Protein backbone atom coordinates (compact mmCIF):
# COMPACT_ATOMS: atom_id res chain seq x y z
CA UNK A 1 0.00 0.00 0.00
CA UNK A 2 0.98 3.60 -0.46
CA UNK A 3 1.44 5.90 2.52
CA UNK A 4 -1.97 7.49 2.02
CA UNK A 5 -3.72 4.11 1.72
CA UNK A 6 -1.96 2.95 4.88
CA UNK A 7 -2.99 6.02 6.85
CA UNK A 8 -6.62 5.47 5.83
CA UNK A 9 -6.47 1.88 7.12
CA UNK A 10 -5.18 2.71 10.62
CA UNK A 11 -7.82 2.61 13.36
CA UNK A 12 -7.43 2.88 17.16
CA UNK A 13 -7.08 -0.36 19.09
CA UNK A 14 -10.29 -1.80 20.54
CA UNK A 15 -10.36 -0.74 24.19
CA UNK A 16 -13.67 -2.55 24.69
CA UNK A 17 -11.65 -5.74 25.16
CA UNK A 18 -9.96 -4.40 28.31
CA UNK A 19 -12.75 -5.41 30.70
CA UNK A 20 -13.06 -8.93 29.28
CA UNK A 21 -9.26 -9.36 29.34
CA UNK A 22 -9.16 -8.21 32.96
CA UNK A 23 -11.90 -10.67 33.87
CA UNK A 24 -9.91 -13.52 32.40
CA UNK A 25 -6.76 -12.43 34.26
CA UNK A 26 -8.70 -12.20 37.53
CA UNK A 27 -9.98 -15.77 37.12
CA UNK A 28 -6.46 -17.22 36.84
CA UNK A 29 -4.96 -19.06 39.81
CA UNK A 30 -3.18 -16.14 41.45
CA UNK A 31 -4.06 -13.16 43.63
CA UNK A 32 -5.60 -10.43 41.49
CA UNK A 33 -2.98 -8.12 39.99
CA UNK A 34 -0.08 -10.18 41.36
CA UNK A 35 1.66 -10.43 37.98
CA UNK A 36 1.86 -6.64 37.82
CA UNK A 37 3.01 -5.20 34.50
CA UNK A 38 2.82 -8.60 32.83
CA UNK A 39 -0.94 -8.42 33.18
CA UNK A 40 -0.98 -4.96 31.63
CA UNK A 41 1.09 -6.22 28.70
CA UNK A 42 -1.27 -9.12 28.09
CA UNK A 43 -4.24 -6.73 28.11
CA UNK A 44 -2.52 -4.40 25.65
CA UNK A 45 -1.93 -7.25 23.22
CA UNK A 46 -5.53 -8.42 23.59
CA UNK A 47 -6.83 -4.94 22.72
CA UNK A 48 -4.50 -4.60 19.74
CA UNK A 49 -5.43 -8.00 18.33
CA UNK A 50 -9.08 -7.82 19.36
CA UNK A 51 -8.79 -11.37 20.63
CA UNK A 52 -8.94 -12.97 24.11
CA UNK A 53 -6.72 -14.69 24.91
CA UNK A 54 -4.25 -13.12 22.47
CA UNK A 55 -2.90 -15.27 19.66
CA UNK A 56 0.77 -16.20 19.46
CA UNK A 57 2.93 -16.37 16.35
CA UNK A 58 6.43 -15.53 15.27
CA UNK A 59 8.50 -12.55 16.41
CA UNK A 60 10.47 -10.53 13.87
CA UNK A 61 12.99 -7.69 13.93
CA UNK A 62 14.12 -5.85 10.82
CA UNK A 63 17.55 -4.26 11.23
CA UNK A 64 17.84 -1.31 8.86
CA UNK A 65 21.33 -0.12 7.91
CA UNK A 66 22.12 3.24 6.34
CA UNK A 67 24.84 5.85 6.32
CA UNK A 68 24.52 9.52 7.26
CA UNK A 69 26.30 12.41 5.60
CA UNK A 70 26.25 14.28 8.92
CA UNK A 71 28.97 11.90 10.13
CA UNK A 72 31.35 13.98 8.03
CA UNK A 73 31.01 16.74 10.63
CA UNK A 74 32.84 14.63 13.24
CA UNK A 75 29.78 13.94 15.42
CA UNK A 76 30.56 10.26 16.11
CA UNK A 77 33.30 8.34 17.88
CA UNK A 78 33.45 5.93 14.92
CA UNK A 79 34.13 6.41 11.19
CA UNK A 80 31.35 5.95 8.62
CA UNK A 81 32.78 2.69 7.29
CA UNK A 82 31.68 1.01 10.51
CA UNK A 83 28.10 0.99 9.17
CA UNK A 84 29.06 -1.47 6.42
CA UNK A 85 31.42 -3.40 8.67
CA UNK A 86 28.72 -3.91 11.30
CA UNK A 87 26.24 -4.91 8.60
CA UNK A 88 28.60 -7.73 7.64
CA UNK A 89 28.79 -8.61 11.33
CA UNK A 90 24.99 -8.88 11.50
CA UNK A 91 25.00 -11.11 8.43
CA UNK A 92 27.68 -13.33 9.97
CA UNK A 93 25.69 -13.65 13.21
CA UNK A 94 28.28 -12.04 15.47
CA UNK A 95 26.55 -8.92 16.79
CA UNK A 96 24.61 -8.44 20.02
CA UNK A 97 21.30 -8.54 18.19
CA UNK A 98 22.19 -11.93 16.72
CA UNK A 99 22.98 -13.38 20.13
CA UNK A 100 19.76 -12.04 21.64
CA UNK A 101 17.49 -13.08 18.77
CA UNK A 102 18.89 -16.61 18.96
CA UNK A 103 18.29 -16.66 22.71
CA UNK A 104 14.72 -15.32 22.56
CA UNK A 105 13.65 -17.14 19.40
CA UNK A 106 13.21 -13.99 17.33
CA UNK A 107 13.74 -13.91 13.56
CA UNK A 108 15.99 -11.14 12.28
CA UNK A 109 16.23 -9.71 8.77
CA UNK A 110 18.98 -7.29 7.79
CA UNK A 111 18.03 -4.59 5.28
CA UNK A 112 20.42 -2.35 3.35
CA UNK A 113 18.27 0.75 2.96
CA UNK A 114 21.14 3.17 2.36
CA UNK A 115 24.64 1.96 3.22
CA UNK A 116 27.43 3.74 1.34
CA UNK A 117 28.89 0.42 0.27
CA UNK A 118 28.17 -2.06 -2.52
CA UNK A 119 27.46 -5.42 -0.93
CA UNK A 120 27.82 -8.54 -3.04
CA UNK A 121 24.62 -10.53 -3.55
CA UNK A 122 23.95 -12.29 -0.25
CA UNK A 123 20.97 -14.45 0.59
CA UNK A 124 20.87 -13.09 4.16
CA UNK A 125 20.71 -9.41 3.08
CA UNK A 126 17.60 -7.61 1.86
CA UNK A 127 18.95 -5.10 -0.65
CA UNK A 128 16.47 -2.21 -0.75
CA UNK A 129 18.96 0.63 -1.05
CA UNK A 130 17.48 4.01 -1.89
CA UNK A 131 20.79 5.86 -2.13
CA UNK A 132 24.32 5.56 -0.76
CA UNK A 133 23.62 7.33 2.51
CA UNK A 134 22.03 10.69 3.11
CA UNK A 135 23.61 14.01 2.27
CA UNK A 136 25.23 16.08 5.02
CA UNK A 137 22.24 17.93 6.49
CA UNK A 138 24.56 20.51 8.01
CA UNK A 139 24.90 21.82 4.46
CA UNK A 140 21.45 21.16 3.00
CA UNK A 141 18.60 18.63 3.10
CA UNK A 142 19.51 15.04 3.98
CA UNK A 143 17.46 13.71 1.06
CA UNK A 144 14.69 14.66 -1.31
CA UNK A 145 11.05 14.44 -0.31
CA UNK A 146 10.59 11.64 -2.87
CA UNK A 147 13.41 9.65 -1.26
CA UNK A 148 11.91 10.15 2.20
CA UNK A 149 8.54 8.93 0.96
CA UNK A 150 10.18 5.94 -0.72
CA UNK A 151 11.91 5.01 2.55
CA UNK A 152 8.60 5.17 4.42
CA UNK A 153 6.78 3.09 1.83
CA UNK A 154 9.58 0.50 1.85
CA UNK A 155 8.91 0.01 5.56
CA UNK A 156 5.16 -0.21 4.94
CA UNK A 157 5.63 -2.95 2.35
CA UNK A 158 7.88 -4.95 4.68
CA UNK A 159 5.26 -4.74 7.45
CA UNK A 160 2.54 -5.94 5.05
CA UNK A 161 4.69 -8.85 3.93
CA UNK A 162 5.57 -9.85 7.49
CA UNK A 163 1.97 -9.57 8.74
CA UNK A 164 0.82 -12.14 6.18
CA UNK A 165 2.91 -14.84 7.91
CA UNK A 166 1.31 -15.36 11.34
CA UNK A 167 3.17 -12.42 12.89
CA UNK A 168 2.87 -11.88 16.64
CA UNK A 169 5.33 -9.06 17.40
CA UNK A 170 7.27 -6.72 15.13
CA UNK A 171 10.23 -4.43 15.86
CA UNK A 172 13.00 -2.55 14.10
CA UNK A 173 16.68 -2.10 14.85
CA UNK A 174 19.16 0.29 13.34
CA UNK A 175 22.75 0.60 12.21
CA UNK A 176 24.06 3.91 10.95
CA UNK A 177 27.00 5.99 12.11
CA UNK A 178 25.67 9.49 12.77
CA UNK A 179 22.05 8.46 13.27
CA UNK A 180 21.71 9.80 16.81
CA UNK A 181 22.34 13.25 15.33
CA UNK A 182 19.47 12.71 12.92
CA UNK A 183 17.21 11.42 15.69
CA UNK A 184 17.99 14.42 17.89
CA UNK A 185 17.39 16.83 15.00
CA UNK A 186 14.03 15.18 14.26
CA UNK A 187 13.00 15.46 17.90
CA UNK A 188 13.99 19.14 18.03
CA UNK A 189 12.21 19.90 14.76
CA UNK A 190 8.96 18.25 15.88
CA UNK A 191 8.82 19.66 19.41
CA UNK A 192 10.83 22.87 19.49
CA UNK A 193 13.11 21.51 22.21
CA UNK A 194 16.74 22.63 22.00
CA UNK A 195 19.53 20.40 20.73
CA UNK A 196 21.34 20.88 24.02
CA UNK A 197 18.36 19.36 25.89
CA UNK A 198 17.98 16.20 23.83
CA UNK A 199 21.33 15.39 22.23
CA UNK A 200 23.22 12.49 23.77
CA UNK A 201 26.67 11.00 23.44
CA UNK A 202 25.68 8.36 20.90
CA UNK A 203 28.58 5.98 20.41
CA UNK A 204 30.37 7.39 23.46
CA UNK A 205 31.77 10.72 22.31
CA UNK A 206 33.81 12.97 24.60
CA UNK A 207 32.64 16.39 25.81
CA UNK A 208 34.34 18.36 23.04
CA UNK A 209 32.75 16.17 20.36
CA UNK A 210 29.38 16.46 22.09
CA UNK A 211 29.61 20.26 21.99
CA UNK A 212 30.40 20.07 18.27
CA UNK A 213 27.46 17.69 17.74
CA UNK A 214 25.05 20.09 19.48
CA UNK A 215 26.37 23.02 17.46
CA UNK A 216 26.07 21.10 14.19
CA UNK A 217 22.44 20.16 14.93
CA UNK A 218 21.57 23.74 15.90
CA UNK A 219 23.07 25.13 12.70
CA UNK A 220 21.44 22.43 10.56
CA UNK A 221 18.00 23.17 11.97
CA UNK A 222 18.46 26.88 11.32
CA UNK A 223 19.66 26.18 7.78
CA UNK A 224 17.03 23.63 6.72
CA UNK A 225 14.05 24.96 8.73
CA UNK A 226 12.08 21.68 8.73
CA UNK A 227 8.33 22.18 9.01
CA UNK A 228 7.08 20.65 12.31
CA UNK A 229 3.58 20.27 10.85
CA UNK A 230 4.94 18.11 8.00
CA UNK A 231 6.70 14.94 9.25
CA UNK A 232 7.87 14.01 5.76
CA UNK A 233 9.56 17.40 5.41
CA UNK A 234 11.30 16.84 8.76
CA UNK A 235 12.47 13.39 7.67
CA UNK A 236 13.70 14.65 4.31
CA UNK A 237 15.61 17.59 5.74
CA UNK A 238 17.32 16.14 8.82
CA UNK A 239 16.44 12.44 8.93
CA UNK A 240 17.94 9.17 7.83
CA UNK A 241 16.93 6.46 5.39
CA UNK A 242 16.72 3.83 8.13
CA UNK A 243 14.59 6.18 10.23
CA UNK A 244 12.24 6.59 7.28
CA UNK A 245 11.98 2.82 6.81
CA UNK A 246 11.32 2.37 10.53
CA UNK A 247 8.59 5.03 10.34
CA UNK A 248 6.93 3.09 7.55
CA UNK A 249 7.29 -0.21 9.39
CA UNK A 250 5.51 1.29 12.40
CA UNK A 251 2.70 2.67 10.22
CA UNK A 252 2.39 -0.66 8.45
CA UNK A 253 2.21 -2.54 11.74
CA UNK A 254 -0.58 -0.25 12.95
CA UNK A 255 -2.50 -0.71 9.70
CA UNK A 256 -2.17 -4.50 10.06
CA UNK A 257 -3.03 -4.37 13.80
CA UNK A 258 0.28 -5.91 14.82
CA UNK A 259 1.90 -4.86 18.13
CA UNK A 260 5.11 -2.91 17.48
CA UNK A 261 7.89 -3.10 20.08
CA UNK A 262 9.97 0.07 20.12
CA UNK A 263 13.71 -0.20 20.62
CA UNK A 264 15.65 2.88 21.72
CA UNK A 265 16.44 6.44 20.67
CA UNK A 266 16.46 5.96 16.89
CA UNK A 267 13.31 3.82 16.77
CA UNK A 268 11.51 6.28 19.04
CA UNK A 269 12.36 9.17 16.71
CA UNK A 270 10.75 7.14 13.93
CA UNK A 271 7.71 6.53 16.14
CA UNK A 272 7.36 10.28 16.71
CA UNK A 273 7.22 10.80 12.95
CA UNK A 274 4.73 7.94 12.55
CA UNK A 275 2.45 9.27 15.29
CA UNK A 276 2.49 12.74 13.75
CA UNK A 277 1.35 11.11 10.49
CA UNK A 278 -1.48 9.28 12.33
CA UNK A 279 -2.23 9.78 16.06
CA UNK A 280 -3.72 6.28 16.49
CA UNK A 281 -0.27 4.77 15.91
CA UNK A 282 0.38 5.21 19.63
CA UNK A 283 -2.15 2.47 20.44
CA UNK A 284 0.09 -0.13 18.81
CA UNK A 285 3.41 0.83 20.42
CA UNK A 286 5.08 -0.93 23.34
CA UNK A 287 8.28 0.78 24.52
CA UNK A 288 10.85 -1.89 25.30
CA UNK A 289 13.22 0.11 27.48
CA UNK A 290 14.50 3.49 28.58
CA UNK A 291 17.70 4.16 26.72
CA UNK A 292 20.70 5.66 28.47
CA UNK A 293 20.86 8.10 25.54
CA UNK A 294 20.04 11.63 26.67
CA UNK A 295 16.64 12.73 25.45
CA UNK A 296 15.03 9.30 25.21
CA UNK A 297 12.87 9.79 28.29
CA UNK A 298 11.53 13.05 26.87
CA UNK A 299 10.83 11.25 23.57
CA UNK A 300 8.81 8.55 25.35
CA UNK A 301 6.89 11.20 27.27
CA UNK A 302 6.10 12.96 24.01
CA UNK A 303 4.77 9.66 22.65
CA UNK A 304 2.80 8.99 25.83
CA UNK A 305 4.29 5.54 26.44
CA UNK A 306 6.14 4.02 29.40
CA UNK A 307 9.17 1.75 29.04
CA UNK A 308 8.94 -1.88 30.11
CA UNK A 309 12.61 -2.11 31.13
CA UNK A 310 15.38 0.18 32.32
CA UNK A 311 18.68 -1.58 31.66
CA UNK A 312 20.87 1.48 30.92
CA UNK A 313 21.34 0.23 27.35
CA UNK A 314 22.13 2.47 24.37
CA UNK A 315 23.27 0.06 21.68
CA UNK A 316 20.38 0.07 19.25
CA UNK A 317 20.28 -2.77 16.69
CA UNK A 318 16.89 -3.79 18.15
CA UNK A 319 18.51 -5.27 21.26
CA UNK A 320 16.14 -3.71 23.79
CA UNK A 321 13.12 -4.64 21.69
CA UNK A 322 14.31 -8.24 21.44
CA UNK A 323 14.58 -8.61 25.23
CA UNK A 324 11.14 -7.07 25.74
CA UNK A 325 9.63 -9.40 23.15
CA UNK A 326 10.48 -12.30 25.45
CA UNK A 327 8.60 -10.66 28.32
CA UNK A 328 5.60 -9.76 26.17
CA UNK A 329 5.38 -13.32 24.88
CA UNK A 330 5.60 -14.62 28.45
CA UNK A 331 2.77 -12.28 29.49
CA UNK A 332 0.53 -13.59 26.73
CA UNK A 333 1.39 -17.21 27.54
CA UNK A 334 0.37 -16.62 31.14
CA UNK A 335 -3.05 -15.42 30.03
CA UNK A 336 -3.38 -18.33 27.61
CA UNK A 337 -1.97 -21.23 29.62
CA UNK A 338 -2.64 -20.65 33.31
CA UNK A 339 -5.61 -22.51 34.74
CA UNK A 340 -8.58 -20.71 36.24
CA UNK A 341 -9.73 -21.17 39.83
CA UNK A 342 -12.70 -23.14 38.51
CA UNK A 343 -10.80 -25.49 36.19
CA UNK A 344 -8.08 -26.17 38.76
CA UNK A 345 -10.55 -26.57 41.62
CA UNK A 346 -8.69 -23.96 43.65
CA UNK A 347 -10.62 -21.93 46.24
CA UNK A 348 -10.91 -18.20 45.64
CA UNK A 349 -9.95 -15.47 48.09
CA UNK A 350 -12.27 -15.42 51.13
CA UNK A 351 -12.30 -11.65 51.61
Properties at a glance:
elongated; 49% helix; alpha/beta; 351 residues; six-stranded parallel beta sheet; 6 strands
Query: Order of strands across the widest beta sheet?
Result: 3-2-1-4-5-6
Q: What proportion strand?
A: 5-15%
Into which percent range does the helicity of residues fall? 40-55%
Count every beta strand, where a strand is a DSSP E run of 2 or more residues.
Answer: 6
Mean pLDDT score:
96
Task: Return the structural class.
Answer: alpha/beta
Number of helical elements: 15
Write down the Rg. Answer: 20 Å
Compressed to H and E, one letter per element, the order equals HHHEHHEEHEHHHHHEHEHHH
The poorly predicted ranges are none
Sheet having the most strands: 6 strands, parallel
How far apart are the termini? 54 Å
Shape: elongated
Describe it.
- The chain has helices at 3-9, 17-27, 37-49, 82-91, 96-104, 145-163, 179-191, 195-198, 207-224, 231-238, 241-255, 265-277, 296-303, 319-337, 341-344, and strands at residues 58-66, 107-114, 125-127, 167-175, 260-262, 285-287.
- It is an alpha/beta fold and 351 residues long.
- The chain contains 15 helices and six strands.
- Helix 7 packs parallel to helix 12 (265-277).
- The protein has a six-stranded parallel beta sheet with strand order 3-2-1-4-5-6, sandwiched between helices.
- The termini are far apart.
- The longest helix is centred in the middle third of the chain and has 19 residues, at 145-163.
